[in-house]
Design goal:
By secondary structure, this protein is α/β, with parallel strands linked by helices. It has 7 helices and 9 strands; from the N terminus they run E-E-E-H-E-H-E-H-E-H-E-E-H-H-E-H. It is 26% helix and 20% strand. The strands form 2 sheets. Strands 5-4-1-6-8-7-9 form a 7-stranded mixed beta sheet, sandwiched between helices.
Length: 198
Amino acid sequence: MAKDVSGTRLRTAAIVLAAGLGTRFGGGKMLARVDGKPMLQRVLDVAADAGLDPVIVVLGDDTDSVEAAISWRAEIRVRNDDPGRGISSSLNVGLSAVGDAERVLVLLGDQPFVTLENVRVITGVEPDPQRPVVVPRYADGHPGNPVLLQREAWPLATRLEGDRGMSQLFGSNPDLVRYVDVEGVNPGLDTPADLERR
């Protein structure tokens, strides 16, 4: 984990966005099995192994079934009562629950192949108030998730709209973004066919 100018370890929270309707998947996406585990569980395991604290999990209409199926640790579970407004609304719900962490890593519940190694690279970036948005760039040259937001970027994040998510933020504010190169890829799983191809 990165440290501030005094050498103090920065507290990095996680927001795991898991409230999506999953309509293209046919519902129940967060609990689809990937290598024997629910998709969401794999993301939560990486967040825990990376030492992110707190871990905020934003759930939606399927809150009850997800809560019953996941092996929880100390994650803070919050609910987006209107997930139809898109991923940006879930991000707002998550940010409101983060507390006093200096930074937050935004993970997507439908990206179960995110690796601990890449999370460590992203969260290991030293703070820069002039470029408070850290975006991973994968081996194929494309930017992706998870995105690290220093506190300076939170007001911008709360103004996002719809379902495009973090790409709005770094697309419209390129001067605030730092890219960090990471290994591999981190695909989202939008349909059952996406899962079958993995």
